[in-house]
Design brief:
Blueprint lengths: L2 E7 L5 H10 L4 E3 H10 L3 H9 L6 E2 L2 E2 L1 H8 L3 H28 L4 E5 L14 E6 L2 H11 L4 H10 L3 H7 L2 E4 L4 H16 L1
Parallel strand pairs: 1-5, 1-6, 2-5, 6-7
Antiparallel strand pairs: 3-4
Helix pairs in contact: 1-9, 2-5
């Protein structure tokens, strides 16, 4: 039986570090953010048409999409955000389902899926194990300011649109805290991976 594990956490919590450690062990992992990036990088005609239909056509130039422009727009326009997410979530769900089916067919022992909006989309019951990464808001902002040059205003808007850490703790099977050094966090990750994989 294939054990299907979901990894989640708020923006800047440290999910990508965990997924890198999983990949180092040769375990298959599907990253939802990467799937979304591919939708933008290699847009289907249906996606281009959808963006135009919901008023985001100005972000398209010669079939290339300005993701930053879209991101700024949707955090100030809830209706447009929901219409955009409707398309993207449908595509990501389809890819996720295909990935799980394929890995079960291959009889993989365990697979991981990185799903940032797991709780927001009521998906937690679909997985055998849910791992949540919990990190203080000030630590998360510090990381994002450095890596993505994100503003405090946009960070706060994203935080408000995501599930609280309190809710994540309540509905997760495993919680990993990432508030200290990278060395400490990596040790926690690998201790948990050892436990799951043995």
């Amino acid at each position: 039986m294939t054990i299907v594990i979901a990894v989640t956490g708020g923006i800047g919590s440290g999910k990508s570090t965990l997924t890198k450690e999983v990949a180092k062990r040769g375990i298959k992992i599907l990253d939802s953010d990467q799937q979304v990036s591919l939708i933008y990088k290699n847009p289907k005609r249906s996606f281009i048409n959808h963006l135009k239909k919901i008023g985001l056509g100005r972000a398209i130039k010669k079939n290339k999409i300005n993701k930053a422009m879209i991101r700024d727009e949707i955090f100030y326009n809830k209706k447009t955000k929901l219409e955009l997410e409707r398309y993207i979530f449908k595509e990501v769900r389809k890819n996720r389902s295909n990935f799980i089916k394929l890995e079960k067919k291959r009889k993989s022992k365990v697979v991981f899926l990185d799903i940032p909006l797991l709780f927001e989309n009521n998906l937690s019951k679909k997985f055998d194990i849910v791992i949540s990464i919990i990190s203080k808001k000030e630590e998360r902002f510090k990381r994002l300011k450095k890596s993505r040059k994100i503003t405090k205003e946009l960070f706060n808007k994203i935080i408000k649109s995501q599930t609280s850490d309190l809710a994540r703790k309540k509905d997760s099977d495993i919680v990993i805290y990432n508030n200290k050094s990278m060395k400490d966090y990596l040790k926690k990750i690998n201790t948990i991976l050892d436990r799951i994989l043995t």
